[in-house]
Amino acid sequence: MMVAELKQQVLMQKASSTRTMKRISNSFHGTSVGFVPTMGYLHEGHMSLVKQSLSTCDHTVVSIFVNPIQFGANEDLDVYPHDLEGDIEKLESAGVDVLFQPHRETIYPKGFKTYVQVDEITDQLCGTSRPGLFKGVATVVLKLFNIVRPQHVFFGEKDWQQLAVIETMVRDLNLDISVHRVPLVREPDGLAMSSRNLNLSAEDRQKALSLSRSLEDAKEKIRQGTTAASQLKQSMKDRITAESGMQIDYISICDPISLQEIEEVKGRTLIALAVKIGSSRLIDNCIVKD
Amino acid sequence: MMVAELKQQVLMQKASSTRTMKRISNSFHGTSVGFVPTMGYLHEGHMSLVKQSLSTCDHTVVSIFVNPIQFGANEDLDVYPHDLEGDIEKLESAGVDVLFQPHRETIYPKGFKTYVQVDEITDQLCGTSRPGLFKGVATVVLKLFNIVRPQHVFFGEKDWQQLAVIETMVRDLNLDISVHRVPLVREPDGLAMSSRNLNLSAEDRQKALSLSRSLEDAKEKIRQGTTAASQLKQSMKDRITAESGMQIDYISICDPISLQEIEEVKGRTLIALAVKIGSSRLIDNCIVKD
């Protein structure tokens, strides 16, 4: 067991340049390559993506890159949490083959000016309050795909809208990549796992439970026969703002594919929300009538 | 010789679906693939790209696709000339391996919503009067690259700005593709070859010579010591508008890389222009002080 662990640790390759990463990817030719792009500060949610890649593919590449162009001017780019040593330990123990950890200038060299824009599904939900978010996400993800050249990529349903954007981009740009959706992972008390949870005070951490609980309430109401989205949204809002200092960014009840708001919950429906607690902005979602 | 020609003709494969094209591309794995994207109605300019690909690569793929999203509402999409039989004959005789000729719905299926935008270098020259042009070009070219998967691509310097956009996109999106620049090809009398020349009346065809002649004049003036861009532009304008019915879209004297306008011709400089003659819009360019 010790020997096996040691072997895995020795074998994780690290690349910070695109040239090294491409050289490693080329050496994987003929095998299946899985890829998990992350912004680091890895938690069990990330690791569930990694595990799914490890069990699906011959080789697994994980990237850690805090993508500056998806952060707005007043967002938390500078305080985004990081723990590279801890991340490396987790990835090595899991048996990841390659960590790609590029510098900012490697991904966005001087004169960079090409962007990918997915229309329509980026106008709602997080796209409303974070207008450059999905342009930044689509652009960096396409670049990472082109550098790593995976056949399989793994994204969490926690970022439901991001998944919709990636799936659309992969289809529209004719990429030969299977996008795997991995369920959201929660803390034992129900809080959706997020690297941003670290920035919560103990008190705000407690208040943050109102997000998942408001989703559970809405689910229960739907089970009991409520279908009016306005009514469901109002009771979610009441539940969340019962705590002080909660600033609701959006509560959306929408089609899980088009992300268009609906008025009556009939078939499969996404309930998603974003709430600011102090300086942190948290998101959560669930599917009802699945 | 007859036998060799016959063999070439038999061997040109045709694909109209992305699946067939990708299957053929996969079968080329381990060999070098060159790609020439066109809108058809092939002339010697296109064939010079094809020839360069044939002499550079193991396999050559040519696409014919009149890309609707790069045409504005009042542009010539519906009257864009075509001659598929003639094109096939030219490509087969040249020894092209594959013709990819997708339907519009193959490239832009229902629900298509992902676009590639190259900033800055698309604001000037043709980008000014044709605002969606380069977004449409970059998007379709990236899609075609992803379907055909070439290592080498060939573009003509006639569309200088398009070449700059493609080169920037390939670099920024980390594509493993060599972009080959191929010189503009002219008719014996100097007119830059273009599929759009077909739409000119005999009289307009004659007037169209003023484009290349104004470039020659400017070159000569620069040789004789003129450096002021404003002066050069004015004499080009005078030369062109000496013909009746000529509507100048732009005359640009600019840096060949950034496409930023310059005031004094010192080093390597691009002179580019677009002129409407009747319903046709023609472009031409040359490099000075190379």
Brief summary:
The first copy, chain A, has helices at about 1-10, 20-25, 45-55, 85-95, 105, 125-130, 135-150, 160-170, 200-205, 210-225, 230-240; strands at about 15, 35-40, 60-65, 100, 115-120, 150-155, 180, 245-255, 270-275, 280-290. The first copy, chain A, is an alpha/beta fold.
Protein described:
Two copies of one chain form a homodimer. Chain A folds into two domains: 3-182, HUPs (Rossmann fold, 3-Layer(aba) Sandwich); 195-288, Pantoate-beta-alanine ligase, C-terminal domain (Pantoate--beta-alanine Ligase, Chain: A,domain 2, 2-Layer Sandwich), CATH 3.30.1300. The first copy, chain A, is α/β, with parallel strands linked by helices and 290 residues long. Chain A contains eleven helices and ten strands. The first copy, chain A, has a six-stranded parallel sheet, sandwiched between helices. Mean pLDDT of chain A is 95; it is low at 1-9. The termini of chain A are far apart. At the A-B interface, strand 5, helix 7 and helix 8 of A face strand 5, helix 7 and helix 8 of B. Strand 5 of chain A pairs antiparallel with strand 5 (114-118) of chain B, so a sheet runs across the interface.
Please give the structural blueprint.
The structure is a homodimer.
Chain A: H1 2-11, E1 13-15, H2 18-27, E2 33-38, H3 44-56, E3 59-64, H4 84-94, E4 98-100, H5 104-107, E5 114-118, H6 126-129, H7 133-148, E6 152-156, H8 160-172, E7 178-182, H9 202-207, H10 209-223, H11 229-241, E8 246-254, E9 269-277, E10 280-288
Parallel strand pairs in A: 1-4, 2-3, 2-6, 3-4, 6-7
Antiparallel strand pairs in A: 8-9, 9-10
Helix pairs in contact in A: 1-4, 7-8, 10-11
